[in-house]
Amino acid sequence: MKKLLVIGGSSLLLLVALLCGAFFAGPLLASAHGTTATATKPTTTKKTTPAEKREEHPLRVFVRNHKSEIVEQIAPQLHLTAEQLTDKLQHGQRLVDIAKDQKISRASLKTIIEKSVNTVINQQVSAGKIDQKHATLLKTLVEKHPFVTARVLHRQYDSKK
Fold this sequence. Notes:
By secondary structure, the chain is mostly helical.
């Protein structure tokens, strides 16, 4: 009788261990293989793609909408015409590399970008196309992230996309 009780208890303990293992290990194994287990609860948060995040960034939107004016401001400071700078960007050159070829340091390029974008922002404020609050936001963003402008220009003009 004692032997039967030990065997039965061991069997019951083994069954409970298997059920717990299946309950906890199932979702872990499924996520390790890249599939979702049925026991997981679907999330309600919306995941945004990098393209959607970029679209929402005010500086990126501004640079996209005013790329030709910004290029016209940057080009003379790089000892180029706007057409030459546009051509180089269209052929896949990055603004940082163009500046380097023109013997302009990265620090100087940062200042050139900031001043150029700020000039275009001021023109837009004077024309009444953007308000002062939006202009202040854009100026703060370009001061913190000047090379965002360079990346956006590169992507906008690069024909190799």
